[in-house]
Amino acid sequence: MLKPSLSIVLPTYNEKDNIKILIPEIKKTFEHINHEIIVVDDSSPDGTAKASEELNKKYGNIRVIVRKKKEGIGAAIREGYNNANNSIILSSDSDLSFTLSDTYRLYEKIQEGYDLVWGSKYSKGSFYEPATWQGRVKKWVSKNGNKIIRITTGIKANDFTANLRAIRKDVWKQISTQDKTNTFLMEMILKCKYGGLRVTEVPVTFKARIHGESKMNLGIEAPKFLIKMVKYVLMYRFTGYKLTC
Questions:
Q1: DSSP one-letter string for 77-115
Q2: Topology of the domain covering 6-237
Q3: What was the pLDDT predicted at 224?
Q4: Is 125 left (phi over 0), alpha (psi -120 to 50) or beta?
Q5: With contact defined as beta carbons under 8 Å apart, do 165 and 77 qualify?
Q6: Which residues contact 53 (CB under 8 A, 6 or more apart)?
Q7: What is the pTM of this model?
Q8: pLDDT of residue 174
Q9: Domain ranges of the chain
C-alpha cells in the first residue's frame, strides 16, 4: 500500500551546523516516502538559510522560506504548515534534540486514524536527560508546568510543549491558530481535543543540543504560557466547541 505523502517543517534560527546534519538524516529515514522538507528560517545571521539551499541542490525537494521578521516559533511553524503540499504535516525542532526513529514513529502512528500526534518527553517510556544544571532546572519547570496544564485542561497528556508532532493537512486547515510563541504548541492540542478530534501522544527521547544555544527563556515564557492556557480553556473547554473532519 502506498504510504501517505509527507511535508516536514523545520523552524530555524541560527541552526546552520545542526541543519547540515539533520536534513541528510531525514532524507535517509524517509527515502522510501514521498516527502518534502520546508525550512522556515527567521533570517538567521549564521547562514542557516544558505546552508539549506545548498542542501537542496543535492536533494531537490527542500524549500526554504526566509522570514524577514522574527515573530516566534509559533508563527514560523504556522507558515511552514500553510505552505505544505502533502497529506501529512510533521514538524520538529532543528537542534537534533529529537531522534529520527521517534520522528518516523509519529508518522506511522498518525496513520492509525489519529488527527494529531505529538511526542512526549514525560510519558512512561520517554527519555529526557539534561546535560547541565540549567537544563535540569528547565526540565523541572517544564515537567511541572505540563502537570498544571494537564490538570487545568482535563486533557490526559503529559507534554503539551514539544515541537515534534504530526497533523493531517485537512485537520490543519480546520483549526485557526493564533499564537505566535511556543504557546502555539499547546493551542493546537487544545483546539483539536476540545474540537472532538482524535489525538494522542507518543513517548520520545529528548537529547541536549550539541551545537548552538537554546532560544527558550522559561522565566519569561512560562508565566505567559499559563495565562494563555486559562484563556484557551475558557474559550474552548466548556463552550461546546467542535470541529468536524
A1: HHHHHHT--SSEEEEE-SSS-B-HHHHHHHHHHHTTT-S
A2: Spore Coat Polysaccharide Biosynthesis Protein SpsA; Chain A (3.90.550)
A3: 80
A4: left
A5: no
A6: 62, 64
A7: 0.92
A8: 93
A9: 6-237
